[in-house]
Amino acid sequence: MLEPDIQQNNGSEGLAVYDVPYMTRTRDLYRAQGYEQDYRWAHFEDTPFTELKKPLSESRIAVITTAMPDTETGRSQRQVYSSNCDPIPESLYTDELSWDKKATHTKDVASFLPLNQLNQLKAAGRIASIAEQFHSVPTDYSQRNTMEKDGPDILKRCQEDNVDIALLVPL
Amino acid sequence: MSLIARHLEANGIPTVIIGSAIDIVEHCSVPRYLHTDFPLGNPCGKPYDREMQLDITTQALDLLENASATNTTERTKHIWSENNEWRGNYSKVADSNREHLRLKGEKRRAQQTEIKASGESRAPMIS
What we know:
Distance between the termini of chain B: 17 Å
Distance between the termini of chain A: 26 Å
Largest interface: A-B, 93 and 78 residues
Order of helices and strands of chain B: HEHEHEHH
Oligomer: heterodimer
Radius of gyration of chain A: 18 Å
Number of helices of chain B: 5
Shape of chain B: globular
Order of helices and strands of chain A: EEHEEHEEHEEHE
Strand order of the largest sheet of chain B: 1-2-3
Number of strands of chain B: 3
Strand content of chain A: 15-25%
Number of domains of chain B: 2
Helix content of chain B: 40-55%
């Protein structure tokens, strides 16, 4: 049976295809685990917007992921990390993230960190360059941590890398 | 991640997100979002499907270039499979796992108490 607040997927036929209501599912999961207070997802009425300052073909891009480095430190300490884009890491640490561990896997890094794809697009002239390092940002129960610590930290790293645009990929 | 995108955008760096949780991203409200309607974990395309992965990243760059207003969402054309059971299975709470989840919550709260006692202030989202 479908949840009452599902968002119907455009173009779908019947009820087999619908957008999974993750906020509702998470709320129900938290409740089932005995948490008395529902998690409040970040919500804003206004949204910033910045136009591209130069064509994509002249732009330098940053890549940001929620996966952590697959190192002893990355596996044990949740914080912002910067890792080299070249060579592309063969694995990243994703065990603590809320992805669908029954339906899929994260063994292919390119399925969630598009460095291979961006290298091809750079070779084709679609973008000018890729920042030397990509950044890992931890998902955090505390939105304050993300807004007051990680956001400014990532911005600083992007500015130091002289990037023009950013591609963000949460798992 | 939506909060990070908003922060970068507010400080002059145009952003695009590729993700698979459209309700969460749109609830937060972000400048540009490309939705891949897949189980969480592979927003850039199915594992080892290089053609699909390139297509999705290409679409994200196109969106970055072409969006003329904020809150622009697009969907990729790709489908995960003809079988849609994954949609109903994710984080399912049912009588069959209710006791397991209750115990998991108890264990997690004990861990959180330990983490707090150690001075660590960061707690991941639960799964």
